[in-house]
Design brief:
Number of helices: 8
Structural class: mainly alpha
Radius of gyration: 25 Å
Oligomer: single chain
Largest sheet: 2 strands, antiparallel
Shape: elongated
Order of helices and strands: HHHHHHHEEH
Strand content: under 5%
């Protein structure tokens, strides 16, 4: 689940994901730094075990450049462990994130998040186009409180004005879904 805050900002959720990522990184750091393991196995550990913790539910968050930078900074810790360098080495030898990603043929955080977003949207579209005899329309699946153009109120036998709502939500919903 996600952490919901009163200001509806994902800062707390991203901080929580990064902290969980650091905890997992601490557990897997010996494997990632090990020269006995192949490069592809160490990359797989980062992709499968660590990136999934960091990017969990990122497709449903509203992220700006600052939040993406936070993800990138956290992931850079794992990339430095993969290359067996420290932050100081990275600064002294002018090794940037792009060169590390190119060396190990890995995607940036922005690319990974965008892929997850496109996959998420694809799943929504695929679920709305079902093979059932009466496929559900997306606007009916995602609606909240429906607006009606013009209906006749059964209790008072009067016509409700344009864009009015029926007083009973269940009746309104039933009318909306059956017409």
């Amino acid at each position: 689940g996600c952490i919901q805050t009163s200001d509806c900002k994902p800062t707390t959720e991203i901080r929580n994901r990064c902290n969980k990522f650091y905890a997992k990184l601490h557990l897997y750091k010996d494997c990632i730094k090990s020269r006995e393991l192949s490069k592809s196995l160490r990359k797989t550990i980062i992709r499968v075990c660590l990136d999934e913790v960091l990017f969990y539910s990122s497709e449903s968050l509203l992220l700006n450049a600052g939040y993406i930078k936070t993800y990138t900074s956290a992931r850079l810790h794992a990339l430095r462990a993969l290359k067996s360098i420290t932050r100081y080495d990275q600064h002294i030898y002018h090794i940037n994130e792009k060169s590390i990603l190119d060396e190990f043929k890995m995607a940036t955080c922005l690319e990974k998040i965008m892929r997850r977003c496109f996959r998420f949207i694809g799943q929504i579209v695929k679920s709305t186009i079902s093979q059932s005899p009466t496929p559900q329309r997306p606007e009916k699946m995602l609606m909240g409180y429906p607006l009606l153009k013009s209906i006749i109120d059964e209790d008072n036998q009067t016509e409700l004005p344009f864009h009015a709502r029926k007083p009973k939500f269940a009746d309104t919903l039933q009318y909306y879904l059956t017409t």
